[in-house]
Each structure stands twice: as C-alpha cells, then as structure tokens.
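Q: Sequence in, structure out?
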Amino acid sequence: MRPAVLHLIDSFNQGGSERQALQLTRLLLQSGRYEVRLACLSPDGALRSSIDDLELGDIPSFPLTSFYDQNAIRQLRRLVRWLQTSGIDIVHTHDFYTNVFGMAGGSIARVPVRLASMRETAEMRSAAQKRVQKVAYSLAHHIVANSKAVENKLVADGIGPEKVSVIYNGLDLKRLETSLTRSEALAVLGVNIDEAKPVRFISIVANMRHEVKDYPMFLRAARSVKRAVPDAVFLLAGEGELEESLKSLARELGIVESTLFLGRCEKVAELLSISDVCVLSSKAEGFSNSILEYMAAGKPVVATNVGGAAEAIAEDETGFLVPSGDDAMMAERLISLLLDPDRALKMGALAKRVVSERFSCEAQLSRTEHLYETLLSARSR
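A: Exactly. Output:
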C-alpha cells in the first residue's frame, strides 16, 4: 500500500509558494509512488484551474480568519478528523499559515511524518507570529528550506541543522516556451508600441503587495537607464495594493510613458520572450522563482544580492548581483547589458543551461521523495 501524503496550501493565488506546491503535487502524482491529496485554507485563486486535469478527488478547505478565535478551533478539529479518517502518513505544508495550522493538526492527529517549509529570509513576521512559528517548527519532524540562505536563517533562529534540508525550487522549463512571434506576444500582453522603432524591454515579475519587493529601487534605476538608453521600456508584471503609489512614483521620476504596468501576468513565457534583460529588486527573498524563470527563458538577470540569489546567478556569467537598495549600480549593470546585446545573449544562454542542469523538476522530485522515504523509515523504527 502506498504511503499517503497531504499537501496543505494557503490558497490558489498566483504566489511562488502556491505554484511550487501545486507543481510538486503534480510531479508526485505522475511518479505514482505516493497517494497524493491536496487541501487548502482558501479554495479561491487563479491557479485552481491549473489542476483540473489531476485526479485529486475532493480538495477540502479549512477557511481561517485568525489563529485565535472559535472558528480556528472548529477548523482545527475538522482538519484533525479529516487527517485521521483519510489515513495520511505525511502532512507537508508550504508557508507560514499552513505551517502553523498543519503542524498543529498533524500533531494532534498523530500523523507519522510532519514536514514544514520555509521560503523567506525577510523579517516579515511580528513578534507574536514568530512565537507561533517557533511552536509550529517544534511540532514538525523536519523543515524544507528552498535555499542555503533560508537554511542558514533557520539555524540562526535556533533550529538544529539536522532538522533542515535544502530542496531547491524546481522549474517546469516547458512553461517558459512559446511559439508566438514578437508581434503576437506584444498583442497578447496588451503592449502597444510602434514596432517600426527600436525598443529594448527590461522586465520585472514580482507582486505589488509587499514593500519587500522594492519596486521603488527598480523605478529609480529605470530613470537612470532611460537617460542612457532612450529606447528602453520597462515592463512591470504584478498586482497588489502598492500599484497606484508606484504609478505615482513613475510620474514623479518622469518615466511614466516608458513604464508599463501589466498587472497580474499569466503569459510569463510571452513576456520573457520579448524581454532583453530581467530584474529583481527585492530587499529580501528565500529563493526567487522569478530569477529561475528569467534564466530558463535565456535572459541575463540583474538582481539584488539577497536570499538565495547568489545560489542561482553566477556573477558576470549569467547575470549580475547588486546590493539591496543600490539603484545606481543596478542601472549601471542594466545599461551595460543593453549596450552589449551579444554579451547579454551569451549570458542568457548559459543561464538557461544552468537552470536545466541544477533546478529541474526532476531534481526537485527526486530530493523530495528521498526525504519522504528517509523520514518514514526513521518514524517506523
């Protein structure tokens, strides 16, 4: 009888954690070594349709409004009953909220293996959340970090190194392929430009919900780039409550006409196909899916040297790393790539090869299944 694993996700919104969890769910189903189940805290989000072809059966949801109210207790009881009646052998959670909820439920239900995840290095949590998170980690048998940088943070926060494993995000390279021409891609993206005139695109893919993505740094760099490369156009793919303030900043910086806010972008392959250089300006990251997508699309990357960025980008070979907040250096690196397209193409080609060799879905699946087997074996002794 195959062991049963539950993946518990927060929602089906288009976040990096959600994409990775759903991709891993698909990979495990295709492997066939485990009986795979999926549950969520919220059933909403654009990614829900992406798993319509999977035979997952019922996907229960356990909606929360807080960890500290009567509803949380009711939902926890529901989860415990569900875990017990479903015969789950492994519960695998993927972010702060599911770590807390899933590790608590898994512990009460006495699930044999409880596996939490950590994907961030930023100080995004309040003191109360950090205390709750610490309890969740104490209830977990093991924690998956998606980069060495995240592993180092966990150890610095008091987690024993023997309790942490690094499994890098896997990337489905086919998702970054497109057969559309440049003109067709521009039309799909809603980018209206005069194609008779030369234009060079610099793209950034990041949500606009959190200041940690530091779009203002990118926009300040964009102003400098525009002065040196007049045909540069900046494509910002992301949505969130910060969007209006960022549009205002673009107007203040005098680059609003060259700064296109695309909103939530479901056509990432098409966006990257027309891009000359790609950027990430975050103040902190765990291990950025955007960086891997840029590289897989064969684009040179200029990114802030935070989190696991240096574990993906080889300095001056597949891209450049700059200090967080240093928009002047970011602009300098972007300008150098735009003015030397042959060099940019060579860096992008190497980047694509690096992703296929080190950050494939196959590698992610192999390491995950090995960890599952190790933990199950240890718990059965």
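The chain has two domains: 4-170+360-380, 173-358.
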